[in-house]
């Protein structure tokens, strides 16, 4: 029995295994979190339900399952414990310890400024000790941020959500090359490449959290995710004491060391940073009356009895030792010749096997280093390209508050669909009812014929089935050929129409997509290289030379006949280097 998100939202008191859903606690890109109670024990828990739309993607299901596996390996008072993992048809559920004290993010928002130094250091150390426990067991969190640091009812901090975690034995819990994490708290190496991380990325993220607690603001801010990512990679943070002069100089130095761009210049691990912060933590007052150490009770033995017992014991012990020695010598002589023969026979075989293993390990290491270096270089190149593109002059800026673009407002009943288009409250709407699989555009070609450009548009699906999509069209030519960057409720795709559709990137899940909300699509084109973005985050990069140049447009698509859908578009922009 699969349940869609509407069903989930209304499923109060529904039972899943031994757990009864009480009320919704949170909803995010991965799914919904409910407060649940064990039906017999009445123990509270947070039950996380994977979004059914994402659950259809095998990679996402694997990531969700491994979140449970990663967190279940960790037994520490500073890490929320996994209590259960359930599968109900196509639905997946993780049951995690319920933490009613809220998140550090909520605390910072309510505080509206820096936390007291001792409190900030105490909270940081609690998180660092827990992360050190995870790191020493081969697990990197990779998504440390205030919303993933939660409190028990009595104020103890616990680390949650190991959904982006990476095993240090090489198993990736995310798709290869995907820099998952939260840009405000990501380390420079995580932004460059998610494949070359070690535990020091958690040190950096905790440095950001500590800086935010002490300064009342983040070390790097910007108008977009790209501005923030670029700053993490290239810019030094503002000295902490400029925001909060009450921070001791030594503490400022420790915090900035955690934020070093190069991992080798940071602390060696979360444990070392926790120890370095210890002098700045507020200590509880010592007990006035020391607690006496309780020693184990030992029954008294009389001296005479003790002496006779020891004499007999040592005599027996010597006899047993002599017997064992004789037996051992005999067996050793018999087995020595057998062992020598076995050793001679297996030595050559073992040497050959060891050599094969060494050669294979060397080959794999070489391939891994080459791939990691290329991935890092590509990521840095993408950031530089995006930074340059933001300075290009505008060719088009249209928020559709007026009708200067002269887009159609007609309704037509054509061969493939019955369509409509109109301006509405500073947006332009496209929609209709399909008679077959079809893509419908405005009919205009914006920006002339360009090879190098940066185009973006905000879009929101007002209604329609899950697989209907809103799209940004680019390199559009008069003969009807174009590229199409499409987004539905949870996935994106890239296709080229020449004139029939050919998929370059088939439908792929993207956590950057905000279902039911406005999403900003963007594409950077430089010759035959393209970078795709959703909500200011890179989701794909590719090269294709099918179409060399063209204009920009946007539209709505239907995967089959009989579908009714509508998309709204706003803030349409095209930049070009000229």
Features:
Phosphorylase Kinase, domain 1; alpha+beta; single chain; 11 helices; 7-stranded antiparallel beta sheet; globular; Transferase(Phosphotransferase), domain 1; 3 domains
Structure, explained:
The protein is an alpha+beta fold and 578 residues long. It starts with a helix and ends with a strand. It has three domains: 5-97, Phosphorylase Kinase, domain 1 (2-Layer Sandwich); 104-280, Transferase(Phosphotransferase), domain 1, CATH 1.10.510; 394-575, Jelly Rolls (Sandwich), CATH 2.60.120.560. Strand 12 and strand 13 form a beta hairpin. Helix 5 runs antiparallel to helix 10 (270-277), helix 7 crosses helix 9 and helix 8 crosses helix 11. The longest helix has 87 residues, at 303-389. Strands 11, 12, 13, 14, 17, 22, 23, 24 and 26 form a nine-stranded antiparallel beta sheet that branches. Strands 15, 16, 18, 19, 20, 21 and 25 form a seven-stranded antiparallel beta sheet that branches. The protein has a six-stranded antiparallel beta sheet with strand order 1-2-3-4-6-5. It is built from eleven helices and 26 strands. The model is unreliable at 1-12, 166-179, 284-306 and 365-376 (pLDDT under 50).
């Amino acid at each position: 029995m699969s349940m869609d998100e509407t069903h989930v939202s209304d499923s109060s008191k529904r039972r899943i295994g031994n757990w009864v859903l009480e009320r919704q606690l949170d909803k995010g890109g991965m799914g919904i979190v409910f407060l649940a109670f064990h039906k017999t024990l009445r123990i509270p828990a947070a039950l996380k339900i994977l979004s059914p739309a994402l659950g259809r993607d095998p990679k996402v299901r694997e990531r969700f399952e491994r979140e449970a596996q990663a967190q279940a390996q960790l037994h520490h008072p500073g890490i929320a414990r996994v209590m259960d993992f359930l599968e109900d048809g196509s639905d997946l559920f993780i049951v995690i310890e319920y933490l009613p004290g809220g998140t550090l993010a909520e605390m910072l928002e309510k505080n509206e400024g820096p936390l007291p130094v001792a409190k900030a250091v105490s909270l940081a150390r609690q998180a660092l000790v827990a992360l050190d426990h995870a790191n020493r067991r081969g697990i990197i969190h990779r998504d440390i941020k205030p919303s993933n640091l939660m409190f028990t009812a009595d104020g103890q901090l616990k680390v949650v959500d190991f959904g982006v975690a990476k095993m240090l034995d090489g198993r990736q819990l995310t798709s290869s090359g995907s820099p998952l994490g939260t840009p405000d708290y990501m380390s420079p190496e995580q932004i460059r490449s998610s494949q070359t991380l070690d535990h020091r990325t958690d040190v950096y993220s905790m440095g950001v959290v500590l800086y935010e607690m002490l300064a009342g603001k983040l070390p790097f801010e910007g108008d977009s995710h790209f501005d923030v990512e670029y700053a993490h990679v290239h810019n030094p943070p503002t000295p902490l004491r400029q925001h909060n002069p009450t921070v001791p100089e030594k503490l400022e130095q420790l915090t900035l060391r955690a934020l070093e761009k190069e991992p080798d210049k940071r602390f060696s691990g979360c444990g070392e940073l926790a120890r370095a912060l210890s002098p700045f933590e507020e200590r509880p007052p010592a007990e006035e009356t020391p607690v006496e150490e309780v020693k184990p009770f030992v029954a008294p033995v009389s001296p005479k009895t003790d002496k006779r017992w020891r004499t007999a014991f040592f005599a027996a012990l010597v006899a047993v030792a002599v017997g064992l020695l004789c037996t051992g010598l005999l067996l050793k002589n018999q087995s020595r010749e057998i062992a020598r023969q076995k050793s001679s026979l297996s030595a050559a075989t073992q040497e050959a096997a060891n050599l094969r293993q060494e050669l294979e390990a060397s080959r794999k290491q070489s391939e891994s280093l080459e791939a990691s270096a290329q991935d890092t270089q590509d990521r840095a190149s993408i950031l530089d390209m995006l930074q340059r593109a933001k300075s290009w002059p505008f060719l088009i800026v249209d928020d559709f508050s007026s009708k200067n673009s002269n887009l159609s407002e007609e309704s037509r009943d054509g061969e493939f669909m019955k369509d409509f288009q109109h301006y509405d409250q500073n947006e332009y709407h496209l929609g209709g009812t399909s008679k077959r699989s079809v893509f419908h555009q405005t009919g205009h070609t914006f920006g002339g014929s360009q090879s190098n450009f940066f185009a973006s548009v905000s879009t929101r699906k007002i209604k329609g089935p899950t697989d209907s999509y809103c799209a940004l069209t680019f390199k559009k030519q008069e003969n009807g050929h174009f590229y199409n960057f499409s987004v539905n409720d949870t996935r994106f795709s890239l296709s080229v129409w020449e004139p029939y559709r050919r998929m370059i990137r088939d439908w792929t899940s993207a956590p950057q997509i905000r279902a039911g909300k406005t999403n900003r699509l963007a594409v950077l084109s430089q010759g035959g290289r393209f970078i795709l973005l959703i909500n200011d985050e890179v989701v794909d990069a590719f090269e294709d030379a099918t179409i060399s140049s063209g204009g920009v447009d946007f539209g709505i698509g239907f995967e089959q006949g009989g579908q009714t859908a509508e998309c709204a578009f706003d803030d349409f922009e095209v930049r070009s280097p000229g």
